[in-house]
Amino acid sequence: MSELFDAVDALLASRAVLPPPAERKRLRAAHGLTIDEVATALKVRRATVSGWEAGKTEPRPPERDAYARLLDKLAELYPTDPTAALATFTVTQAPAEAQTLSTDPATQAADMTETEKTQAPAPATAVPVAAPRPAGATRPASTSRRPGAKKTAPVGTPAGNSDPRFENGPLAVVDVEDGKVLAYCTGGLVLDVPAKSLPSLVDWTLKEAKLGQPKLSGPGRPADPLLVLTEAALERYGLPTALTEEERHAGRIPEGHKVIKQLVRAEWKLTKRGFGPWARIYRPAKGSERQCVQLCIPSWTALDTRHWGDAAQLPPAELARVLGVYASRVMTPRGSTAVTGLELMTALHPPTYAVRDEETGALRQADEKTPGSLGKDAIDPMNWPPCEVPDGHPVLKDLPRFHVRGPAEKLFEEAYDWARPMTDAECTLRHLVGIDVNMAFAAGANGLTVGLGEATHVKAPAFDPKLPGSWLVDLSHVDLSRVKVGKEWVELDGSLLPSPFTPKGERPEGPAWYATPTVAYAQELGYDVAPIEAWVRYDNGRYLDGWYSRLRDAYLATMADLGVDADLAPADFLTAMEGYKARDPELAIVVSAIKATVKGGLGKLRERPRGEGWKPGEPWRALSRPTWRPDIRAAVISRTRINLHRKIVKHAAFTGQYPVAILSDCVVYAADGTSPLDFLPYREGKPLPGGFKLGINPGLVKWEGTQTVLWGEEVRERFDAPELNLARYIKDGTVADIDNGE
């Protein structure tokens, strides 16, 4: 009989009633859930849930019944009829732009309306606008009402934090309105701030604000709370609203400033970089307890407009949303996007781990490095391979002053900047179409084995494609006119292809230093390699895998919120990408910041001197970091360039089409039409295996821009530059002056 019941239950589940696709998405967003969270709960792929919400596919048992149950519960919580919500819950739902929670009971009572006072005997839960909190999270019962509330938060608003220590989110934007200091948190929540001075603001943040973020890995530490100070808040706490020219150059206000003196009297300390756009205020940690607050000051140019757009000009609630989404998907910002990219690597691979003292029972940091990390100690500057370091490094101090290192002395793995004149056949075509690789450098980091420790020098080594390092080898014999593609030799027009071994695409003329992926690709093309010497790293691992995954997921989730899903068909993808930024300009800022985090984080691995009175041959500040690793940066760039060249070769072998120009991750082809679909070889919706594929995932390509062939010829003629890199200008066609790329 039970089998019959099971069969009946299965039959009912197969026809479980579901709301329309748009309503499914509304309900998920209203509860602050991401597509990833729903997919994880239902044990399906992210693309599957995305398809259900788009109405492209329908769930089947057993997932259909569970999905219907989820939507039913959400519909009870967030009915389309707003009056039903009041009947379902006893809540204080402020019709305000945000809700203000006071920590002072007297203030709470004064802020209550008559209706709220009536509800107060039955303890109510103050609900942050459209960002429901996890079960068990509590709030003071009353709120002050503020005009202009949104009933539901925009898509991409981060949900509450399940860790009770950080239940108000990772950060707050501190502003002053009508003489009242307010802290705008993520999810639309606003707190009253009682602090009268900056030291008391720091105290309040650590003791009462419940701001912060859980650690990203087992041995790591929670993120410090971040306070973003508006100009009004700066004035309230005695700080300048803008830096002087001298302060901007120094990157900080003077140590004798009255606010810094207040902090010193209260026994707070500043890090070595002082009180600048990104300041850290701390007291030495006691045991495992860390006391540190990070400040971000937008009017001091903390938010670079190249990466954060106009975020610094946003109202407090909107700025809290932008930074909150970034924090929840990447990490709480610790400085510029470049600094945060580097900090994310460390947060995912902390240098050491905590151990418990057997005698006292207290936790302390172990001396041994965490497996898979870079450890807590930087590599001694004098132990670096001379080929891997930039000019002016201490290990090169004995070189003649004006000596220029050539390819046989210097590892030079950089992104492409290559172009060639168009052929006669290409000039008969009408258009130049640019395609751009999504998150190219992140994709280059995925699955890459890199060195974790110091390098070992080896003479006449046998090349090992699995061993990270730098190799001195002659690759000038590799002929692109005849290469292996897969297991077959193919004939190509090598004169129309860039060399994969140099950033400018020139064929090498003799021995040169290369990272492992570059030398491995020479073997893949069918040619023998015989290194003369090498610096290899036997202590190695896939250090960047977690970093890549975190940034990939952040990028895909935010693009999905902007209407660009990972499972779209090629034509639908191109349509979805049109004007995607305008659908939610705030989330578009987050996308820009995520991309900048990738490139900036990798760039920081080879940070150069930044003033500081540095002279060539002397060490500079960045060399003292374990994360100063130019070898890792070189390996990622090498792999990224090789990945692109591999696709170009497969495309050429299959279609006979060759690129006209390449700039980093952008490739330009001549075509008869204006769309990438006019030259990419799709068959029945399927791309060329191993070639270019349209899509939003890292490593896939999107449309960058289209111009006419006549435009390209006119630009090159105007500047008398037959090999002007048109990929640099393909996006909008504007060429103000020749940019040499430096």
Global shape: globular
Strand order of the largest sheet: 2-6-5-4-7-10-9-8
Straight-line N-to-C gap:
78 Å
Rg over CA atoms: 29 Å
Task: Give structural notes.
- Strand 18 and strand 19 form a beta hairpin.
- Helix 15 (337-348) crosses helix 22, helix 18 (516-524) packs parallel to helix 23 and helix 19 packs antiparallel against helix 22.
- The chain is 32% helix and 16% strand.
- It contains 24 helices and 25 strands.
- It is of the alpha+beta class.
Write a compact overview of the structure shown.
The chain has 24 helices and 25 strands. It has an 8-stranded mixed sheet with strand order 2-6-5-4-7-10-9-8. The chain starts with a helix and ends in a 24-residue tail after the last helix.
List keywords for this structure.
single chain, 742 residues, alpha+beta, eight-stranded mixed sheet, five-stranded antiparallel sheet, 24 helices, globular
Topology readout:
Elements: H1 2-14, H2 21-30, H3 35-42, H4 46-54, H5 63-77, H6 82-88, E1 91-92, E2 99-101, H7 105-111, H8 114-119, E3 125-126, E4 171-177, E5 180-185, E6 189-192, H9 198-207, E7 226-229, H10 231-236, H11 245-250, H12 258-265, E8 269-270, E9 278-286, E10 289-296, H13 305-308, H14 316-329, H15 337-348, E11 352-356, E12 363-369, E13 417-419, H16 424-427, E14 431-437, H17 440-445, E15 450-451, E16 456-459, E17 469-474, E18 482-485, E19 488-491, E20 511-515, H18 516-524, E21 533-536, E22 540-541, H19 545-561, H20 570-577, H21 580-583, H22 585-604, H23 630-655, E23 661-663, E24 666-671, E25 701-708, H24 709-718
Parallel strand pairs: 1-3, 2-6, 4-7, 7-10
Antiparallel strand pairs: 4-5, 5-6, 8-9, 9-10, 11-12, 13-23, 14-24, 14-25, 15-22, 16-21, 17-20, 17-21, 18-19, 23-24
